[in-house]
Amino acid sequence: MSEIQKVAVVTGAGSGIGRAVALALAGAGWSVALAGRREEALRETARLADEGAPLAVLPTDVTVPEQVDALFEAVRERFGPLGLLFNNAGSGTPPIPVDELPYERWREVVDVNLNGAFLCAQAAFRTMRHQRPQGGRIINNGSISAHVPRPKSIAYTATKHAITGLTRSLSLDGRPFRIACGQIDIGNAATEMTARMATGIEQANGSVLAEPVMDAADVARTVLHMASLPLAANVQFATVMATTMPYIGRG
C-alpha cells in the first residue's frame, strides 16, 4: 500500500511554532496549507518559504466548524490526499488567579485549544479515513503544561491536559484506518508567547525568575522527524524543551 502523502495542514501557521514547522515541512518537500485567523501573518510565513514551495494560504478560525470543513475541502482540491495535520493553534491568558479569571476568558481558551483542536482532528480523521490511499498522521501540540502547571494558568493547563486525552483517543480510534496520532510537548521555545521568559516568570514557590529558551527551529525539526516516519511507526509522545528550564524538579 502507498505510504503517507506529503501534504500537510498546519494550524496557527502565522507565527511561532506553527510558522517554524510550516517552513520546515515546506523545505523538506511537503505541500503545506497555512491555516490561521490572520491572513497577513500567513502570507508573511509564505514569503519566508523557499521560492517555489507549494504553499496555500487559507485563513481559518478553528473554532468555527464550517470554516474547518472548508479548510480541509480546499486542501483536498488543491493538493490531493492529506498526509499530516499539525494541530497547533492555541491561546492562553496572562497569569490570573483562579477566582479572578473571567468565564469569557476561560471559554476563549477552551474554544481554541480544545474545541478547535477537536474540530481540526475530526476533519483530518474523516479525510484520512475516506481518502485513497487511506491513512495519515495527526500531531497535536501539547505543552509542558500537559504534565505540570505553571502558577495562575488554569485555563491553558486544563486544555493541554485535555489534548493528551484527545491524542490517546485518536491513536486508538485511528488504528483500523492507518491513522497515527502523536503529541509534542514543548517547553520554552522562543516565540511571541514566551517573550516574558527573558524578563522573569512566576515560579511555583512564588519567586520570579528568567528562564532559558530554545530556538523554535529545534521544535520544527522534531515535528519533521515525527511526520517523516512510515505509518507503521509513531512517536506517541515527545517532550522538547530548553535543556536547563526548571521543568524537571519544578515545584
Automatic annotation (TrEMBL):
CDD domains: SDR_c
SMART domains on file: PKS_KR
Pfam families to which the protein is assigned, alphabetical: adh_short
Claim: Oxidoreductase is one of the keywords in the record: yes
Keyword annotations of the record: Oxidoreductase
Presence of keyword Oxidoreductase: yes
Domain named Ketoreductase: residues: 6-187
Gene3D superfamilies: NAD(P)-binding Rossmann-like Domain
Domain of life: Bacteria
Family of the protein in this entry: Belongs to the short-chain dehydrogenases/reductases (SDR) family.
Protein name (database record): SDR family NAD(P)-dependent oxidoreductase
Source organism of this protein record: Streptomyces silvisoli
Lineage: Bacteria, Bacillati, Actinomycetota, Actinomycetes, Kitasatosporales
